[in-house]
Fold:
Amino acid sequence: EYHERPRNKNFTALVRTHKWWRANTMTKLWMNGLHEKGYFSYNNSNIDESDPEAGPIEINGFGSLKHHTEFFLKQCPFHADLLTSDDHNLYHNTVVAHHDDAYFNFVFETHLDVDQSNGVFLTEKTFKPIKHAQPFLIVGAADSIQQLRDMGYKTFDHVVDHSYDTLKNNTKRWRAVCNEMERIAKCKKIHQMYIDCRDDILWNQQLFLASKADRLQKILEKLK
Structure:
């Protein structure tokens, strides 16, 4: 349930399956010590031997980030709960504290680069914070946030800078969303920021839990 009690963590950022762009993102938080401000997890059981430069991010344009990412992976795993790997694989499993005790959710979607002709690919990763009363941003494909708006959801635009969502270039979009994550993770007024999201949070939760007919009605109401 939505509540306004103080929370112990500024954010939740959970990664179950390794991908180089996910590792790069979590490394940026970790390098700045921001992992201590969140429920932060990275599972190292599926780390592959592929070239880290073969991913969607032009990693060589970020100084020593490639080196730091390799070092970060050697420190893994980072755990945010006591669930087993099999438990993590069940998408319906939810640790209450990840939503109830953290202000924001940093969503790591399945893909960073998607063929836009096939549409945006959103998964349960995005809808968990919606269901569990958290504002969020998405590390994923371009237009992911816009897709949610088109579905009738509100995206906390008065608090979160989602301009990254419009950037088609994967590296530029990734840089922009990382900057916004770091800003939120460091924010000293994050409790008030969360309260300022109240109306959007409750709207999204009710829309998600509504019947299909009710969801359509809410979308029509928003378009008026």
Notes: Strands lie at 9-15, 38-42, 102-108, 136-139. The mean pLDDT is 91.
